[in-house]
Design goal:
Layout (H helix, E strand, L loop, with lengths): L2 E9 L16 H13 L6 E2 L8 E11 L8 H11 L4 E9 L11 E10 L12 E3 L5 H11 L1 E4 L13 E12 L2 E8 L6 H13 L5 H10 L14 E7 L18
Parallel strand pairs: 3-10, 5-6
Antiparallel strand pairs: 1-3, 1-4, 2-3, 5-9, 5-10, 7-8, 8-9
Helix pairs in contact: 1-2, 3-4, 3-5
Length: 264
């Protein structure tokens, strides 16, 4: 009897052409399908909850696949260890759980959360350049937060995405926040769904406001005008991470080790 499984994935997207399979290009999906073939001997197709572009990272990507009869009885911990043995160093399965046969990681998701990391510096930052956008000061924190607040709620977000006739550009943004620690700022966005490049364009526009290249009033007017593709620039992919995908019921509980605080 076959069994459907859900995986929690973490990956560094620097060397990938994106998450979705592409012919003759390295992708997260192709790496995972190759690892499954090596582990089980079967050609298994993987579905992903969220599509990430080239250079975008993830700590909360969810994938799903249907195992054949020969591997359906394999326990979850063996899937984790086996797949991580065959996956490249830039990808790792964090947890595995059995799910119902009709589980769809994309359609069943209630919301998605992304984070974007910014590093303020007047100089190059070799240790940060794979994971953050290096922004030169000035950067007005309170103005940035005011711009982010204007994004929360249900809006037409066409200004932050290329022109499209495929679907509605109305989205409900639950969170748009900025936390700061020394020279590092972490922006977090949560929504029912996002359009292509929406998060990176929102970040780019907020940074323009924070650097006094656009006034807050100009930002709000352009956002409300909803002219397709009018706001940006598109922030670099390196700072973006797919952080979390929410489902009606939590798929994964505690899956990594925690510090033993006894005696601390």
């Amino acid at each position: 009897m076959s069994q459907r499984w859900a995986l929690l994935l973490q990956y560094d997207g620097t060397e990938f052409a994106g998450s979705q399979w592409q012919p003759n290009r390295p992708t997260v999906q192709s790496a995972l399908q190759s690892a499954l073939a090596s582990l089980t001997g079967d050609a298994i197709r993987v579905s992903l909850a969220g599509r990430t572009d080239a250079g975008v990272h993830a700590v909360g990507q969810v994938a799903s696949f249907l195992s054949e009869k020969s591997a359906s009885s394999m326990p979850a911990h063996r899937w984790v260890r086996g797949l991580n043995h065959f996956l490249p160093a830039s990808v790792a399965v964090q947890a595995v759980t059995a799910v119902r046969d009709d589980f769809d990681p994309r359609r069943d998701a209630l919301s998605r959360a992304y984070t974007y990391e910014i590093r303020l510096s007047n100089q190059r930052q070799p240790l940060w350049e794979r994971r953050a956008w290096i922004v030169t000061p000035p950067f007005d924190l309170e103005t940035a937060r005011s711009a982010l607040s204007a994004l929360v709620g249900t809006h037409d977000v066409a200004a932050f995405t290329p022109p499209t006739i495929e679907r509605s550009t109305t989205r409900t943004l639950r969170e748009a926040s900025l936390m700061v620690n020394a020279e590092t700022g972490l922006l977090r966005f949560s929504a029912d769904a996002f359009l292509h490049h929406q998060v990176r364009r929102m970040v780019g526009a907020v940074v323009e406001v924070a650097r006094c290249r656009m006034s807050l009033d100009e930002f709000v007017r352009a956002f409300e005008a909803a002219r397709p593709g009018s706001m940006g620039p598109t922030a670099p992919a390196c700072g973006l991470t797919l952080a979390e995908i929410e489902y009606p019921r939590p798929l994964f509980h505690t899956y990594n080790c925690h510090w033993d605080r006894e005696g601390v």
